[in-house]
């Protein structure tokens, strides 16, 4: 890399030359390894994770020279320019802080952090160390979400006064009794796991209006009773082991422009919902509905409006090819290369963490929470 820390923004050139990446985590991390490896001029030089066989196999497959057990050893490598984090949520903050302090750029899986104080520290560190910090919001890169945004920008549906957004699963608790269901390691359940994607797509479609207040509830009944594992083989009869998080969260958001949104996330529920993502935008002159059952890639969008006095439904022909991580990672690399880092310090992710954190506080305290930044 050719940049030095704390170069004034206006004076910084494009970052040319090879960029060397270290990836932490071997689950979603394997997607990062492949996506970074396919970007021209980018090389994955280090990989960290605990599962030795998997680490060796990925190392051989992608020709990665440094294979490590602990993230701290990867962050300490001088020949790493970028640290890519796909480790349990509780490690996002310590890894990011260490990587930024060591002068690395950071690409981090959602959620940015466990809570608002951690997220603020991370954004402040990215600014102080003059490095890029970006979060993997891959769902907004779906072709249907992007097309809906184009429709809103080019055609519009009038003032959007209310929205409904949800991700609902019938039986989709990931890693029952793993780090996913430990409050200390995950920060929460369905809401912090699936919520960032739905919230990010919603705020993107709404043009980044700010949430100023939330009123939320959270329940963990099914997981505690041993129901709802994503992989039913994980589920033991009568099992009610360590399940410390919510499997359902429901919230009402108030935005800075007086509009509102109903938001619901479930990992598990005895209901018709299977693996359904839904975003409905209600505007004065029309509506938009994104409905993605079981990660469908076609027929997921509807636009509604009145034409010549009659209600009309428009079904745009949009195919979602899938594989959005490579798009997000290629964009992240372009942001690093551009030298224009000032809008890439994790600010978008920070607001998403503030909203989800406020939901947890609202649910715990049984009252509406106004966001501090509001
Ligand atoms: N953007 C998305 O669509 C998406 C999808 C799935 C997961 N994720 C996120 O990715 C992250 C990882 O989730 P996952 O499903 O891959 O989990 P996982 O349990 O499959 O993988 C976690 C990895 O972290 C490694 N790890 C744990 N402690 C470590 C340490 N001290 N040093 C080095 N490595 C360590 C583990 O060995 C493992 O390889 C989570 O934050 C999750 O929210 C995002």
Task: Give the helix/strand layout.
Layout lengths: L18 E6 L3 H10 L4 E7 L3 H11 L3 E3 L2 H5 L6 E4 L6 H10 L3 E4 L7 H13 L4 E3 L7 H12 L5 E10 L13 H4 L3 H16 L5 E9 L1 H4 L23 E8 L4 E7 L8 E9 L3 E7 L7 E7 L2 E5 L10 H14 L8 H19 L3 E2 L4
Parallel strand pairs: 1-2, 1-4, 2-3, 4-5, 5-6, 7-10
Antiparallel strand pairs: 7-11, 8-9, 8-15, 9-10, 11-12, 12-13, 13-14
Bound molecules: nicotinamide-adenine-dinucleotide.
Nicotinamide-adenine-dinucleotide binds next to loops.
Written account of the structure:
The protein has 374 residues and is α/β, with parallel strands linked by helices. The protein has two domains: 9-136, NAD(P)-binding Rossmann-like Domain (Rossmann fold, 3-Layer(aba) Sandwich); 139-322 and 355-370, Dihydrodipicolinate Reductase, domain 2 (2-Layer Sandwich). Strand 1, helix 1 and strand 2 form a beta-alpha-beta unit. Strands 14-13-12-11-7-10-9-8-15 form a nine-stranded mixed sheet, covered by helices on one side. It starts with 18 loop residues before the first strand and ends with a strand. The protein is built from eleven helices and 15 strands. The longest helix has 19 residues, at 347-365. The radius of gyration is 21 Å and the shape is globular. The model is unreliable at 1-10 and 236-240 (pLDDT under 50).
